[in-house]
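Re: Re: ligand-bound prediction request (bumping)

Still looking for help on this. To restate: I need the protein modeled with uridine-diphosphate-N-acetylglucosamine bound, output as structure tokens. Inputs repeated here so nobody has to scroll up.
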Amino acid sequence: MEQYIMKGGAPLSGEVTIAGAKNAALGILAGAVMTNETVIIENVPKVQDVEYLLDAIADIGAVVERKEGNKVLINASTIRTTQVDNDYIQKLRGGYYMVGALLGKYHHAEVDMPGGCNIGSRPIDQHLKGFRAIGADVRIKGGMILAHASRLVGTHIYMDVVSVGATINIMLAASLAEGKTIIENAAKEPHVVDVANMLNCMGANIKGAGTDVIRIKGVPELHGCEYSIIPDQIEAGTFMMAAAATRGDVVLKNVIPKHLESISSKLREIGCEVVEEDDAVRVIGSNHMSATHIKTLPYPGFPTDMQSQMAVVLALADGRSTITESIFENRFQYVDELVRMGADIKVEGNVAMIEGVNMLSGARVVATDLRAGAAVVIAGLAAEGFTTVEEVAYIERGYESFVEKLRELGAEIERVSSEDEVQKFKYKVG
Ligand code: UD1
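Reply:
Sorry for the wait, this slipped through. Here it is.
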């Protein structure tokens, strides 16, 4: 079974280049099928979730070509079905963007219900509400989302909860609707803005992305374009936490520092140094980190996707910290794993109470979901002794070359597939 084995205790140092944003890529690649002209997307991260979506897009008949580097070409003129019900799409959350994209272009979509990490109940009622509001008949049948419209007509939509997925999905479909759609209480995440920018590059007319009111003037058709995806805010944040937890000194390249503000300011608050440049951020860890309180919130608040990695840092900070999770109800599964490594964390409802300890110790732990998986790796790198992390497929859904990048920063970590290899690693690094 694939697992990561690592020996912790050494500070990470050096430079790491951050990949394109996975969650932007999923919306953008789905959007690329909305024209019959060729779309070229750059800075596409090589992660499993993106591969699943590209496979699903190819499976319905589009031409999908991976070019050198991180470039992907999509030509959707050859799409032969609007039914997306293969193994790939079931595995990922962002597969639901195929509903918005196909509904907008063909007025018809049949897509498997989304999968993704088990971090809560994750309803999609706001997506369906949006599609219905612009004139689609939407049903869930046999585990699939069935959406059909004879006409899509723009309207005023108020989102009952701030949802990244629903905001992007409605933007996709409404780009090709008749008239004007207004999304109120929209999500403001950088990847919402990135999908809007890409659709505008394809000829859509979307204004206000990044604020809580998005105005979309429908256009009759979209055209081809070349577009480069923004850097991944969460991958960057993860390496920032790895630098802090190991008391290292790491420069992250290809980032947008503004997107990292909530993360940078919390690290500064607990005593780390964060130096911002135009498209780079340097994090210098501290031997005397202090406790703080975190509450996850929609952007520009502290991202829910960063709370498990931050928990590792706070587990090593002096005093009592708290993390309040306000987006997903089941996002503390990683706590048991950190406790196995010597962390002192108790969960009550949606609050984790963390009493800082001096040191974590290596153990055999499991990645319970994508971001939780990254967190236990960070813990392993900060801990004394050896740590093995199982279920690493979760991690590889969202992190490009995670092990390789960590190794370049000096981490002693390897991806192995047998107990034999674990023993060899232990023998090698001593
Ligand atoms: C996306 C990200 C995920 C991130 C999350 C919040 C992708 C593929 N995933 O997930 O990594 O953790 O944003 O930043 O981009 N909700 C409803 N009804 C809906 C939709 C959402 O009640 O129709 C609720 C959810 O249960 C949750 C909150 O709204 O409590 C936010 O969810 P949302 O922003 O939609 O998250 P995802 O798009 O699933």
